Amino acid sequence: MSTGDVHRPIFARFYRRLSPLIEREVGSLRDELLSGLSGRVVEIGAGTGACFAHYPPTVDEVVAIEPEPYLRRHAERAARAADGAAVSVSVRGGLADTLPLDDDSFDAAVASLVLCTVPDQARALAELRRVLVPGGELRFLEHVRADGGPKARVQALADRSGVWPWLAGGCHCSRDTVAAIVAAGFEVEAVRGFDLGPSWGLTAPHLIGVARAPGSRAAA
């Protein structure tokens, strides 16, 4: 058992059963999210390992962090399958806000539908910045709060009440994730919105994008 375990057994089992349906809509987006990556990559909140099959062969190694033990076991199976294909993947326990990784040790980081669930976005993003080399990339695919109006107020209420995070495995639906990425010192280079699920749902809209850590690879 990892000291960074987070136990959400009911949600984890529900999420795993729902995963095939999710991947019908998200699979092609994972290809876009990971396209062009190379070198050593850290992925936080790997879940069942759905991203692993989408990493390009230009990636040398993926270190995946997953704190939920049930999901981690499934991620380990997905990692073995990926190892037999194009990319070497290892799965570790741990928390996004205290990553068990060395400074400046990764060329890129991936956050896919996870920055909504971390207890403290600022700490998690600071950790990603710490483990990235200067100029390293952060690839993100996340749902974020609505741009004002009644829906944004409903999202904020759902989070403040604790009801939605309790039902959805720690998910928060009213986070301004791009603003948090910028506040952590990253430069957002590209971002676009896309439709996923009903537009009236609490977990909409969605964004996919690329940000870069300060510095340059030449200076690393």
Task: Note down, in words, how this protein is organized.
With 220 residues, this protein is an alpha/beta fold. It is 35% helix and 24% strand. It is built from six helices and seven strands. It has helices at residues 9-34, 69-83, 121-131, 149-161, 163-167, 177-183, and strands at 39-44, 59-65, 88-92, 106-112, 132-143, 187-194, 206-212. The protein has a seven-stranded mixed sheet with strand order 3-2-1-4-5-7-6, with helices on both faces. Strand 4 (106-112), helix 3 (121-131) and strand 5 form a beta-alpha-beta unit. The longest helix has 26 residues, at 9-34. It is globular and about 45 Å long. 40% of the residues are buried.
- Report the biggest beta sheet as strand number plus sense, adding barrel if it closes: 7 strands, mixed
Q: Which geometry do the CA atoms define?
A: globular
Strand order of the largest sheet: 3-2-1-4-5-7-6
Q: Percent range for helical residues?
A: 25-40%
How many alpha or pi helices? Answer: 6
Radius of gyration: 16 Å
- Number of distinct beta strands: 7
What is the structural class?
Answer: alpha/beta
Low-confidence stretches: none
**Beta strand %:** 15-25%
The ordered string of helix (H) and strand (E) elements is: HEEHEEHEHHHEE
Distance between the termini: 35 Å
- Average pLDDT rating: 92
Name some characteristics of this structure.
220 residues, 7-stranded mixed sheet, alpha/beta, 24% strand, 6 helices
Short summary:
The protein is built from 6 helices and 7 strands.
